[in-house]
Each structure stands twice: as structure tokens, then as C-alpha cells.
């Protein structure tokens, strides 16, 4: 059945067009489908890669939503893919170990860490299994709206719905047509590099055995982190499959490296004098072909709106609030967008779609922007340690952050409880002050209080 015929079959049902098959688009599709709306997803690529990129951690604030998909069916699907990291072990560049810390909010039963491509692939599989129509190889070339409907153009066809959700990712073109804005880039002095080592490479390399079969935590996965002046290096293991991925935040080179080898050598140069340099060199250079990425880090300036003029189109996920990787929340915030939008559409109903989109924006906007800006705070926190003696005196200073206001938040409960209040503010043109953010509106990394 086509999307158009589905829509005509039940005129009372909301119809939602979703553009983009990433974490954001798939989450919107699954959440809206779960509310009984007619959804259709369009993706420009012909196929998805089963493994792509490195690991992504979905915090408990996102996992709380995805745990409900199919009453746990989706989590069952991803369980075998998970890196079972419950702890982080933190060292400094001299090899001094500050201790092993529990990873609240990203550990088993709360959040999860999986390969990014594998997560999207699993979401896609799950979406298909519940009957969500997905058109691959379908690039959306135009967005439009009237007072009564919104739509897209794809492959020369014009398709309409009650609303359109643009989840095109960081490089979105649709964002400009919908909001009239682009995100500006502000370069930082930092670069981030990442590498992925698969089972075949890692198992053959004796110089990696120290990390994949560490005595004290034989079968348990761990995140290992090293702090040095201007460098942060981390490794996440998946011991049961002899896999690991690493990431490194470092000062960007004054002249751009010409190839991967040059970049890797530049990272190693930052580690000159490090006790563990040789061990880490084996990890850095053991990367699988095609699985090394390095990029200069840039902050995206927030959009002033996520909505189209008639409020029948909205941007979500990275298209709306792309954050630095150090926020550790880009994908998770996209899941919050999706869950909030589905609830708002449900509560507002087919006759009040613009209201639903406005309510979604009001609930989500500030929270997503603060997380987006927080990526820089986290990056500076890990990069700017200079007084390593002070850290030894108080090792809690290197504990992985646990911002409770982010991780302990239940976005669905919040949307359900706040909907009427926000809807009233929208209708009356009043300000809405959200309480899903710290009270001073500033990013916080604290462990256990709002
Ligand atoms: C190194 C790194 C580490 C990260 N770590 C974490 C982490 O630990 N935790 C976390 O939560 N987040 C993390 N993130 C962020 C997270 O990966 C992103 O926020 C998330 O993947 C964005 O999803 P998205 O669906 O918005 O966009 P995308 O994944 O970019 O998906 C957009 C899709 O839209 C499609 N598309 C674009 N234009 C069109 C069009 N016109 N027509 C049809 N299709 C179109 C694209 O092909 C693409 O498939 C990390 C990011 C990086 C780079």
C-alpha cells in the first residue's frame, strides 16, 4: 500500500512524512507509528551499512524510550551488539592510575554502547518489522507547506501529509527551506580522531593483548582513558568479539595533515614522553582500513527556530541541534525529540498540528541547545587538565561526568505532564519556562543533583 492510499484509508489518522533514516528519523517514525499515526520515511541512500563509524553511547534518557519499543523487543535485538562497558579506568600520561569508576547512565540496563552503523541498522530492521514504510534511494529535493498540509518532492513526485519532519542530519539542505536558517560554524583549536579495530586485526596483534585480555577484568568491557596536556585518549573494548574503538581529542595541527598516516603521527607526537606511548601506538596504527576518521572540531551556532513559517514542518536531531561528539548526547537528544513530538501530535490531534510542533519546539529547544553548548564544556574539561598533582589529591575530579539533569530525565513523562501548560503558552503567545534544564540555564556536569 502506498503512503497516499494509507492516508486515504483513514482520514482521521495523522500523516507524518519523515526525511532521513538516521537515529532521529527512525526514532520519530517508530514513536509516531506507536501512537497510531501513518508515517513514511524517505532516505536518499540506497542501502544502510551494517557497521559504520565507531561506538555510540545512548544514555539512560534515550534508552528509557527505546526500551519500550515492542515491549523490549528492540533492546533484545541490540543486546548482542553491545559493548558491555560498566566502568571507566582513568590514567594520566605518566601511567598513573586514578582509579576505576562506575559509568552511571551509560551502563548495562540503563544506557548502551554499540557501533553507530549497527544501531541505525537495528532501528531500521525493527521499524520494518513493525510495518513502517521506508523508501530508500529517495532524495527529497523540495519542502513545501500550506495552511492545511505540508509535503515534499521526491523523484519528481509531490507527496503531502499533515506534517513533515526533517531529520536530514548535520549537513541538512532542508533546514534552510524550513527554518530559513543555516547553522554557522565556529572552529575550535581542537581536532577529534577515531579508529576502529575489528576482531581479525585485534586478535592477530600480540601488542594488543594487554587491552583485550586484561587480567583483572578478564571478560568485562571497560573504557580506558588517558589524560595528558592538550590530549585526551580513550579506548572502549568489546572483549567477547576482540573489538575495540578508540578516540582522541587533541590540539589541531597548524597545517592540515595530508593523509591518515600524517594525522596518526601527529597524535603520537602529542604523546611524546608518555609512559604508554608504545602501547597506544599499536592501538592507533592497528586501525582497520577505512575506519579512521579525523576532523577539526567546530561548534554549530544554535538556530533560532526549528519550525517552518506555518508550523507544519520541523527539523529534529542533528539538523536542528548538532553537538560536538564530546557532549555524548547527539543521538540521545534526537530520541528525546522523537518521543516528545509523537506525544505532542497525539495530544494536539489532527486539527492542531501547528500547535503540536510549537509545543515540541518549546519543550525541546532549550534543553537541546544547552546540551549542544555543553559539548564544548566537556571538551575543555578533559583537555585542560594541567595540575596533575591536584588530580592525584582528589581523583574524583577525573570521574566521568554524570549530569543527572540529562541522564535521569524522563522526556515522555515530562511531555505528558507539561503539554497543556505549554499549549496554553503557545496559544497565548506567552513565554514558557522549561524545567527539564538546570534552573540557571547553564550546562552542568555534576553527578547526582539537578
Ligand atoms: C564521533 C562521534 C561520536 C558521537 N558519540 C555519540 C554518543 O556517544 N552518544 C550520542 O547520543 N551521540 C553521539 N554522537 C552524535 C550522533 O551520532 C548524532 O547526533 C546522530 O547520529 C544524528 O542522527 P540524525 O538522525 O540526526 O542524523 P544522521 O545520522 O546524519 O541521519 C540523517 C539521514 O538523512 C539522510 N538525508 C539527508 N538529506 C536527505 C534528503 N534530502 N533526502 C533523503 N534523505 C536525506 C542522510 O542520508 C542520513 O541517512 C556522536 C557523533 C560523532 C561524530
UniProtKB/TrEMBL annotation:
Oxidoreductase as a keyword of this entry, yes or no, is yes
List the transmembrane segments. Answer: none
Q: What does the similarity note say?
A: Belongs to the paxM FAD-dependent monooxygenase family.
Keyword Flavoprotein among UniProt keywords: yes
Keyword annotations for this protein? FAD, Flavoprotein, Monooxygenase, Oxidoreductase
UniProt signal peptide: none
What InterPro entries does its record include?
FAD-bd (IPR002938), FAD-dep_Monooxygenase_BioMet (IPR050493), FAD-dep_OxRdtase_2_FAD-bd (IPR003953), FAD/NAD-bd_sf (IPR036188)
* Molecular function GO terms recorded: FAD binding; monooxygenase activity
Domain FAD-dependent oxidoreductase 2 FAD-binding spans what residues? 16-47
Checking Pfam families in the record gives:
FAD_binding_2 (PF00890), FAD_binding_3 (PF01494)
Q: Which residues form the FAD-binding domain?
A: 123-347
Q: Give the domain of life.
A: Eukaryota
Q: What is this protein called?
A: FAD-binding domain-containing protein
Amino acid at each position: 500500500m502506498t503512503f497516499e492510499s494509507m492516508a486515504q484509508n483513514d482520514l482521521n489518522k495523522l500523516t507524518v512524512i519523515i526525511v532521513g533514516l538516521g537515529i532521529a528519523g527512525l526514532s520519530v517514525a517508530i514513536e509516531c507509528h506507536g501512537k497510531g499515526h501513518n508515517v513514511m520515511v524517505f532516505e536518499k541512500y540506497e542501502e544502510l551499512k551494517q557497521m559504520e563509524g565507531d561506538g555510540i553511547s545512548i544514555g539512560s534518557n534515550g534508552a528509557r524510550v527505546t526500551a519500550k519499543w515492542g515491549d523490549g523487543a528492540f533492546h533484545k535485538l541490540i543486546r548482542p551488539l553491545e559493548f558491555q562497558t560498566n566502568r571507566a579506568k582513568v590514567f594520566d600520561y605518566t601511567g598513573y592510575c586514578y582509579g576505576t569508576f562506575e559509568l552511571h547512565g551509560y551502563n548495562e540496563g540503563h544506557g548502551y554502547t554499540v557501533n553507530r552503523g549497527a544501531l541505525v541498522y537495528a532501528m531500521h530492521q525493527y521499524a520494518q518489522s513493525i510495518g513502517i514504510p521506508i523508501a530508500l534511494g529517495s532524495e527529497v529535493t523540495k519542502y513545501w507547506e500550506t495552511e492545511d498540509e505540508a509535503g515534499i518532492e521526491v523523484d519528481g513526485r509531490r507527496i503531502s501529509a499533515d506534517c513533515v519532519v526533517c531529520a536530514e542530519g548535520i549537513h541538512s539542505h532542508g533546514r534552510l527551506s524550513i527554518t530559513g536558517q543555516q547553522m554557522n560554524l565556529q572552529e575550535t583549536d581542537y581536532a577529534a580522531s577515531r579508529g576502529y579495530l575489528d576482531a581479525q586485526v585485534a586478535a592477530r596483534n600480540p601488542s594488543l593483548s594487554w587491552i583485550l585480555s586484561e587480567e583483572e577484568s578478564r571478560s568485562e568491557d571497560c573504557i580506558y582513558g588517558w589524560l595528558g596536556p592538550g590530549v585526551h585518549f580513550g579506548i572502549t573494548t568489546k572483549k567477547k568479539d576482540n573489538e575495540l574503538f578508540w578516540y582522541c581529542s587533541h590540539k589541531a595541527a597548524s597545517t592540515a595533515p595530508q593523509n591518515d598516516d600524517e594525522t596518526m603521527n601527529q597524535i603520537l607526537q602529542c604523546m611524546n614522553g608518555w609512559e604508554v606511548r608504545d602501547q597506544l601506538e599499536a592501538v592507533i596504527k592497528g586501525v582497520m582500513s577505512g575506519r579512521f576518521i579525523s576532523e577539526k572540531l567546530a561548534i554549530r551556532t544554535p538556530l533560532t527556530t526549528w519550525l517552518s513559517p506555518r508550523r507544519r514542518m520541523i527539523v529534529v536531531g542533528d539538523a536542528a541541534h548538532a553537538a560536538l561528539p564530546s557532549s555524548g548526547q547527539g543521538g540521545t537528544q534526537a530520541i528525546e525529540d522523537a518521543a516528545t513530538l509523537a506525544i505532542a501530535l497525539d495530544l494536539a490531534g489532527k486539527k492542531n498540528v501547528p500547535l503540536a510542533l510549537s509545543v515540541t519546539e518549546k519543550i525541546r529547544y532549550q534543553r537541546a541547545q544547552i546540551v549542544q553548548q555543553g559539548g564544548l564544556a566537556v571538551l575543555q574539561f578533559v583537555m585542560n587538565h594541567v595540575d596533575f598533582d591536584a588530580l592525584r589529591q582528589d581523583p574524583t575530579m577525573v570521574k566521568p561526568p554524570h549530569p543527572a539533569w540529562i541522564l535521569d530525565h524522563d522526556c515522555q513523562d515530562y511531555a505528558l505532564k507539561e503539554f497543556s501548560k505549554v499549549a496554553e503558552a503557545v496559544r497565548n503567545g506567552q513565554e514558557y519556562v522549561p524545567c527539564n534544564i538546570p534552573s540557571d540555564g547553564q550546562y552542568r556536569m555534576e553527578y547526582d543533583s539537578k
